[in-house]
Amino acid sequence: MASQTPLLDLFVIGGGINGTGIANDAAGRGLRVALCEQRDLASATSSASSKLIHGGLRYLEHREFRLVREALKEREVLLRKAPHIIWPLRFILPHRPHLRPAWMIRTGLFLYDHLGKRDSLPGSRRLSFTGQGPLKPEITQGFEYSDCWVDDARLVVLNALQARQQGAEILVGTRCVAARQVDGIWEIELEEVDSGRRQIRRARALVNAAGPWVEEFIRERTQRRSRYGIRMIQGSHLIVPRIHDDERAYILQNQDGRIVFVLPYQQDFSLIGTTDRRYRGDPAEVAISDEETGYILAVVNEHFRTQLSRDDVVSSYSGVRPLCDDESTDPSAMTRDYTLDLNLQGAPLLSVFGGKITTYRKLAESALAQLAPHLPAMGQTWTAEAPLPGGDIGSQAAFVARLLADYPFLGETRARRFAASYGSLCLEFLHDCQAESDLGEDFGAGLSRREVDYLVEREWARGADDILWRRTKLGLRLSEAERQRLERYLAERLTPGTRLGEAAS
Length: 505
Fold this sequence. Notes:
- This protein is an alpha+beta fold.
- It has helices spanning about 15-30, 65-80, 100-115, 150-165, 215-220, 290-305, 360-370, 395-405, 410-420, 425-430, 450-460, 465-470, 480-495, 495-500; strands at about 5-15, 35, 50-55, 85-95, 125-130, 140-150, 170, 175-180, 185-190, 200-210, 230-240, 250-255, 260-265, 270-275, 275-280, 315-325, 340-345, 350-355.
- The chain has three domains: about 1-45 and about 155-230 and about 335-375, FAD/NAD(P)-binding domain (3-Layer(bba) Sandwich); about 65-150 and about 230-330, D-Amino Acid Oxidase, subunit A, domain 2 (D-Amino Acid Oxidase, Chain A, domain 2, 2-Layer Sandwich); about 395-500, Alpha-glycerophosphate oxidase, cap domain (Helicase, Ruva Protein, domain 3, Orthogonal Bundle).
- It contains 14 helices and 18 strands.
- It is globular and about 75 Å long.
- The chain starts with 6 loop residues before the first strand and ends in a 6-residue tail after the last helix.
């Protein structure tokens, strides 16, 4: 069976941002690429972030200047590549003199403004508060600076889409059982999770972008030894009803030196996080603790007039950041930089440790640079200038106006959601719609059968969570009855041929 399988240049393990970013870059360089993900794309760490494209202001305190510089440059690159899912966001940093002196913050913001090229984002400035805003009246001074928002799971899906457009095979719901070397070639044994069907793929090089499972994959699937360990750091977030009307975000300092973001989320909510705590256990089972909930609420209540309790929590999520273990005793001080380990004890195996969503594209370029001597057919870098699928819209505002002109029955709320989730990709399922009825059944909150069918056929969606929490962010809007109806429809619609592996092309 293996000898009849076409030889790939590269096989990628893991459908998070690093895996899809590497697969996309490699496919665009003319390499023959396949990727497998045991669950859904972005189902682990990559959808559990704070949803920011940022340089990492707090990393300056730990002297991670190279990481901050690279991340700041990437803000501008990604803004151009994906204006539909990434947009500028201003941040307010309330000043609390007993935590960090003003001169330290001003110095940090000066570096933040100038370490990386800033083409479109405004610089930082000092603020005075009148006591009439959402913050407590005793907070009278602060600072404001720029970073960006990102729909993290959509960023992963768009990289997978672009990879497939360039010939890559994306196998979702498929796990790697074993990876063996045979005559200098990797033989990768795959299993479809739902059906149990197995197949063999062959590749010249293997990329291990398994995130929290990166070390385990090396040890248990390849029988090689890892040069690096990981330390799993849990980060948790709360979603509460909107606690302020301002479209800006807040970055709050805490007594322990950590920071908490308060971000405007889905018009009616505030997204608050994150935490930093050591995690031991199965990364697939991570969940917010009562201690973390109390910690986040306490930080917010120290700053805002609106006081929150556990009863205000609408939803929460947790993720595990698989950081390269630098033996730091403080989880907040552990490096967020990435480490790439190229193992040449036979066929090339490149493993990815750590990393940030903001620098995924540079990580992919670095990974392919290390593999280039072993893949002579590899072409040149290309991702810096190429828009991601759906990103050819000019601006969100212009595209919303276009949608409302061409499809007035959508209404402004749905047009804005389409522009901010799909960009021009939504035209694929709107192309012949003349009226609301052409969209088919409404599952709730404007989620139509047309949209669901598109997500199943084109974007690898298989279950309600794939659609509601990762691809549309409508999980906060649908009732339990509406969710169950969606689950029944998906069960009726999905056939064994489309439940696993490659979505329709």
